[in-house]
């Protein structure tokens, strides 16, 4: 993410096509190391593409990703100093959840391929 952020900062600064050196300079200015492989990967994926079109495409893909959750976290009641473990024992037990097998999907299958590629 820091490589992408540095690239976007360079673009916002007026550099329409930041180079590896530009990205490294931005990252080093905040004390971060630039991973050469990640910089090269990003530059190869955005080469010849308009950043505003990439962002718009990414927004469309993220809009299709479900958000929110079906799991609600149960908040433990606050206990006073004198109650010790009594408050924890009085807390209702959360119902047990059956484990479900979930098949893992690649980022591209889930709509996270933000830099184009096959849809």
From TrEMBL:
Annotated segments matching region Disordered? 66-119
The entry's keywords = Ribonucleoprotein, Ribosomal protein
Q: Which GO terms describe its cellular component?
A: cytosolic large ribosomal subunit
UniProt biased composition (Low complexity):
72-94
Q: Which domain of life is it from?
A: Eukaryota
Pfam families membership: Ribosomal_60s
Keyword Transcription carried by entry: no
- Write down the InterPro entries for this protein, in alphabetical order: P1/P2_N_sf, Ribosomal_P1/P2, Ribosomal_P2
Question: Ribonucleoprotein as a keyword?
Answer: yes
Name the protein family. Answer: Belongs to the eukaryotic ribosomal protein P1/P2 family.
Cite the PANTHER family for this sequence: 60S ACIDIC RIBOSOMAL PROTEIN FAMILY MEMBER, LARGE RIBOSOMAL SUBUNIT PROTEIN P2
Q: What does this protein do?
A: Plays an important role in the elongation step of protein synthesis.
Q: Kindly give the HAMAP family that the UniProt entry links to this protein.
A: Ribosomal_L12_arch
Quote the protein name from its UniProt record. Answer: 60S acidic ribosomal protein P2
Q: Give the species.
A: Cuscuta australis
* Biological classification of the source: Eukaryota, Viridiplantae, Streptophyta, Embryophyta, Tracheophyta
């Amino acid at each position: 993410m820091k490589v992408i952020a540095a690239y976007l900062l360079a673009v916002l600064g007026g550099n329409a096509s930041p180079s590896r050196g530009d990205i490294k300079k931005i990252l080093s200015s905040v004390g971060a190391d630039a991973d050469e492989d990640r910089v090269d990967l990003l530059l190869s994926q955005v080469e010849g593409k308009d950043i505003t079109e990439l962002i718009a495409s990414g927004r469309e893909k993220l809009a299709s990703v479900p958000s929110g959750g079906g799991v609600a976290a149960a908040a433990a009641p606050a206990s006073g100093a004198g109650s010790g473990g009594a408050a924890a024992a009085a807390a209702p037990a959360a119902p047990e959840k059956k484990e479900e097998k979930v098949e893992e999907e690649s980022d591209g299958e889930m709509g996270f391929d933000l830099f184009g590629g096959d849809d």
